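haha ok so turns out i had the wrong file open the whole time. this is the CORRECT one, sorry everyone. sequence first:
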Amino acid sequence: MDNKILTLLGFASKAGKLTFGAALSTEALNTKKARLVIVSSDVSEKSKKEICFYASKAQVNCIILENVTTNILSNAVGRNCGILSINDSSFASAITEEYGRKC
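then structure:
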């Protein structure tokens, strides 16, 4: 299931619908652009807690991909990152739906 999520993230990246990194994702949350936040499994606990706090404050889902490392996520989206936000409702709902099937 993670492969389909990674494929969708790759498409979102090529479409220019992602924000990369904790700082820019937080900014996207604060400006109401972010629709979903994705975090890789090996990001520090402090960073996970912080980005999930801002996502919760903005009423946006935060998904931690347990079997996906920063390296795998970076390869999928073409940029080095462990935290990113999806700024498109269609991609966000497709990824959330796929993640829901996995659980």
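Helices lie at 2-14, 22-30, 45-57, 70-77, 89-102.
again sry for the mixup
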